[in-house]
Amino acid sequence: MSKYDEDLAKKPRATPRDIPDEVLEQLREHLDSLPTTTLRMVTILLECGMRIGELCAMPLDCLICDDKHEWYLRFYQMKGKQEHVIPLVDKTVIGTIQAQQEEIHAAWGQSCAYLFPSPQSPLRPHKQQSFRRALNMWAIEHHICDRNAKVWRFQAHQFRHTVGMRLLNNDVPLDVISRLLGHHSLTMTQVYASVRGARLREVLERASLKRRTVNYRGTGRQGR
What we know:
The protein contains 8 helices and 5 strands; from the N terminus they run αααβββαααααββ. By secondary structure, it is mainly alpha-helical. It has one domain (13-212): hpI Integrase, Chain A (Orthogonal Bundle). The strands form 2 sheets. A 3-stranded antiparallel β-sheet has the order 1-2-3. Residues 1-14 and 212-216 have low confidence and may be disordered.
């Protein structure tokens, strides 16, 4: 490697890390069978794209409603070491957070600072591994599989990538996605565009193999 190589910007790796469509479809189909706490956490992750650590440590008073009656979600971004505020437009997510707030208030009053406290103590946040364990036990029980009929193993960070890819596929500008996810630069967000480009190439290559190719003589052959 040249001594100048380290001065060059590294090209983002186009590695798909989001949840495949077929798994998402099964997740949504059986969503109501999830344990209540896991269900509410998944609902928020599927819309907001935050990191699981940020969700577990989210304060109980995380909702903001301004004078226009528009809702926002505030939480602390551990990686950026700063408070992050994002708009909430999905009423299901707003209702989910409000239901969780009411439940925690009823159970612990003012003694709990977390939206998702640990079941063992309201003074501690919900554990990330507890979320993963509950979700993957549920996936095994309901046989949530990928296209190869293999039981899908959920990782919490997959939800963040799924939100990023969904927004990109819905033509949301990269700078908006970057602000929502709290990226420090557009370079981080461009990973999603690279993944989409790689997938587009795969689809086109498969289509090319199937179509009849015509050569310069006007004769053709069926692609294998």
